[in-house]
Amino acid sequence: MNPKRRRSMSENRKSPMNRQKRRTGRRHPLATVALLALGLVFTGGAYAAFSTGTAQAESSANSQQTIDEGKKLFQANCATCHGLEAQGTKEGPSLIGVGAAAVDFQVGTGRMPMQMQGPQAQQKPVQFTDEQVKQLAYYVASLGPGPDIPADHLTNGGGDAANGAELFRINCAMCHNVAGAGGALTEGKFAPPLTDVSGVHIYEAMVTGPQNMPVFNDMNISPEDKRDIITYLKYVQDNRSPGGFELGSIGPVAEGLFIWIFGLGSLVAITVWITAKSN
Predict the structure, then answer these.
(1) Does pTM surpass 0.90?
(2) Is residue 161 part of a domain?
(3) Is 160 inside a domain boundary?
(4) DSSP 3-state assignment of 190?
């Protein structure tokens, strides 16, 4: 081969243009990584869709099973007063449309099943487990739309206690007392104390209006304001009577009566003792 031709071919191979041409015919170094990432994305998406569908199917099955178990409990323990289909009877009102919150409150606080007929249901030890209470609640909820059991973030007491105290004084203190100690109403009825009630049951009472209590829907008191009221009541529960004896938490009347009877009584007793000793 001609030495000049050999030298020309060698120079052509070494020229930048030829190297650029060879590069354009190769895959980019990141192409493999991009293909792997794309494959992982598609695989993860397919798995997530399959898992979501499976979880929804399991949740639906569990919900139906919960409702079925609740129906059995209802027919065995509640149908005597409320009817086999919760349609109501002369002994008890219809429960269609009261929602899960009403059942969770009434059964979860022991007010239902009622121990005896009276002006209002008396609180007593709960007769069902937490799971059974939820089963009853979801069965009644399946009969008609109504208030649901509140979410945890609305009942854990993480709101504004000062705003809750103001709202409680305006809307609740006339029956429950400003300290939540409860009070008497007419015809043998009463507002129960709130000193040991859970946040869930306080919220449920506000949205369902049990006994003589009015219903405070979200248009009257927003969910955030309900959370503030619960926060205030939890503060009262955790800081009981910082000034000393509670005296029923009735207020200045009880405190003044205590001072009048025991304070003046003590002064009279001391005076009599001093007089008797001097004689």
Answers:
(1) no
(2) yes
(3) yes
(4) strand
